[in-house]
Amino acid sequence: MTDFQPLLLLTLGAIVSVACAAAPAQDRAARDAGAQDAVQGERLAAARQLGLDMAIAIYPVHLLGGANRDVGDALGLVLEKRGLPNLTPSETVFASADSSDWTATVGAFGTHVRTHPQAPYALFAAIAGTPKTGPEAVRYALVDARGEVVLQAESTRADATFVRAMGPRAEPMTCCLYVRDRLAEALRWPSARPTAAPGRFARLWNDKSGGPGDDEREAMKRRHEDMRTRGAGIAVLVLPTRVGRGLDRASAGRLAEAIHGYIGAKATASESGPAIELAATSNEQKRLWDFARALRAHLRQHPAEADYVLMADYAIDTDKGERGCIHLVLCDRNGDWVATDFQNSHHRDYLSVSPKSATESDAVAAVRLKQILR
Asked: Taking the model in full, what pTM does it have?
């Protein structure tokens, strides 16, 4: 997994809460917004009046020379998590993104939207850069259903806010979060409000990732509550951690110790475990659920003697560009899912350690286990 491939690093439960606050108004987005002509200023004022109730069609993001629907859907998801419920994925694709003349590109996008209206507003973004350089610029435009520009902006490495937001190892999700925060700033959105149920983009990503449906999630909640009620009376078998394509027995031992320390339950580290092969994917949520399904299949063929079985899957963050993640899957003895957890560089607990080894990843996993078990 390289820095700038479309590795989306999403979680349906919470998208990096640390990025919700808007950054200072010092980049081109703010300067461009201040330079709007009078008519465009009126359109911007009207959009601001709508607040979080804006209805927006989200177009695929232009990335690495083409329209990328996955990254567009990721942008829709982070906006949805920001509290905007009236978002839809665009049914059409706008493929042109001439980085040499963004104003002309925005004009062409407006013409496209006027010809293919889908919602009161439409959003298009483009990420410039290569796998070697990472993001060099982020450009975005919001137009109304008539194709008239509400706001347009571009940020490059000449902008201090952009440089700070991207950090040394940015990825497409970082750019999506950047666009979200710049829009929130320019449109003066109020604080994020909680949503009662998963929105359209959350459901879309769950389907793309092979996540469980509503009935299975409810069953997981019941199993989870039952496990918590039993407390110290449960027995947990911890399988060797999947690290890369190998199995780490020492990691299982450390996780077993953490479980016993948290709730006093009997936790045993297994000497052996399944050799799970996972197909390469840029969708990390899919990796989690592929892993969960493989573990479930193993336990259905080889039921455990313990009440519950835990297995972790780590990708180690390296200086060579590999991106790290930590996945936990807890099943009952027959393989039915009880709880899953997902951590990467967009989560506070992960960033508190920034693990570079299995031992450091265990420290993050132990913190997450505390939340699962108690």
From this structure: 0.71
